[in-house]
Design brief:
- By secondary structure, this protein is mainly alpha-helical.
- The protein folds into two domains: 1-50, no CATH class; 56-105.
- Helices cover 49% and strands 7% of the residues.
- It has a two-stranded parallel ribbon with strand order 1-2.
- Residues 100-113 have low confidence and may be disordered.
Amino acid sequence: MFDFLCHAWGRKEGRTMHGAPKILVWDKGSANTATGIKRVLEAIGVAQHPHTTEHPEAKGQVEQANNLIERQFEARLRFEPRNTVEKLNAAAWVWCYGSRYFGGSVPHTGRAN
């Protein structure tokens, strides 16, 4: 989990965003609640908000992110399959950094469309 977080939050050429978030909403999986991960997040000032079964709206944030990936990225792979890890990673990069959601061509207007 630590390696993943370092990779996800690290500064990389071409990324428009990097760094640790101020708040992290995630499930209570064993990797997420491990003592080492908790200590690292506390040390760098990341507030952890594991969602519980009593608060389905919190889980909804995670589910919405998963649905976005499934509907837009994974669905595209059915029509444009990638047969190597390198090609899959390249497609993921284009989807993340070329899309309207992650710093792509549609600027933020400050209002709902």
